[in-house]
Write a structure and sequence with these properties.
The protein has helices at residues 2-14, 18-26, 30-56, 67-72, 74-77, 80-98, 103-132, 152-175, 179-184. The protein has 198 residues and is mainly alpha-helical.
């Protein structure tokens, strides 16, 4: 029993407490974490836009339009794990960085988070179908609920846009806060105070 207590004590001292991590992400690490997260989101957008270009501009069949990653590792793009993993990273990033947002930025960031919760659910549903081999509506491939009506490529462009747009608006409000918003911010993300927003 003492050995278990010692292991727990070691783990507790070695790892930051969740509240400490949240405070750091809302404070001194917020800027770095936000820009790192934004870079990941932009890289994902680039993949989707390249795939759309391959389909609509180059005339490639959809199953061959794999983006940049898929050209290197075709199996990766066809894996529901990759798509689910990104949806989860997106969800966790929006949750983790939410603590640093204030006022208008917080409202827009929360809108992106709520939409991402649904997007994550859709990817969890796709992954569950891939793992069980039982697809919705007798489809030959895993199919999300909205995909029953909207094709997958267009649907994912839409989902990414409706999460990305409020996220960018939130970042702009966060980077250029009003005087009142700047006074309540715990991080150093603001590039400059926006007097017109007061």
């Amino acid at each position: 029993m003492q050995r278990v207590a010692n292991i727990r004590s070691f783990i507790a001292s070695a790892l930051p407490r969740t509240t400490d991590l949240r405070a750091q992400l809302a404070g001194r690490w917020h800027r770095s974490a936000m820009w790192l997260f934004f870079g990941v989101v932009l890289a994902h957008w680039a993949e989707h836009l390249l795939q759309a270009y391959q389909i609509w501009a180059l005339g490639m069949p959809q199953h061959q339009a794999l983006g940049a990653l898929g050209m290197l590792w075709p199996w990766l793009v066809h894996s529901e794990w990759l798509h689910y993993g990104y949806a989860l990273v997106m969800l966790l990033g929006l949750i983790a960085l939410r603590g640093g947002m204030r006022d208008r930025a917080l409202r827009w960031w929360t809108a992106a988070l709520v939409i991402q919760v649904w997007h994550h659910f859709e990817h969890a549903l796709l992954l569950a179908q891939a793992l069980t081999g039982h697809n919705l509506a007798g489809s030959p491939v895993p199919t999300s609920l909205v995909q029953l009506v909207v094709p997958r490529v267009e649907l994912h462009l839409f989902y990414n846009a409706v999460v990305f747009i409020p996220m960018v608006v939130a970042m702009l409000y966060h980077l250029y806060p009003s005087a009142n918003e700047a006074a309540t911010t715990r991080c150093s993300c603001a590039l400059r105070h926006n007097p017109a927003a007061a």
